[in-house]
Description:
187 residues; alpha+beta; Alpha-D-Glucose-1,6-Bisphosphate, Chain A, domain 4; 5 helices; globular
Amino acid sequence: xxxxxxxxxxxxxxxxxxxxxxxxxxxxxxxxxxxxxxxxxxxxxxxxxxxxxxxxxxxxxxxxxxxxxxxxxxxxxxxxxxxxxxxxxxxxxxxxxxxxxxxxxxxxxxxxxxxxxxxxxxxxxxxxxxxxxxxxxxxxxxxxxxxxxxxxxxxxxxxxxxxxxxxxxxxxxxxxxxxxxxxxxxx
Length: 187
């Protein structure tokens, strides 16, 4: 069974501005299918987080991230992430809702100032270019952390959209653990 390598250089997020990282993935379409994996709780829960979303600007979105639910395959959770072993729930706000092309929401927990995540979908033939931009990240450590997380979640999404069962979240994450610290070292 072939899997996108989480070590593929083109899969890495890049710093595109102060406190901002961006990822690009070319996914099987059509765009409406990819959009459904962003906004439908059940489908989003197969690669990122379940939770209801009010489909409007200013609406609320709840995320329940439980990494063990993202694959039938399991791997031990690293000690430093033990606090989220049983899942993590957060309530965020929808910033943009433009079906089926743009979705943006806040991301973060008080007392931190919320960062912003934007997904942009662009059809390219029978594929869809997904561009994920995470803005307003407070420092390099946060940029490194969210980059490792998005890298892993997007690897799971790629597998799901290709109708394949992804490897365990923590197996994929372990392969890139430390990579973003090195990639962003001179930034």
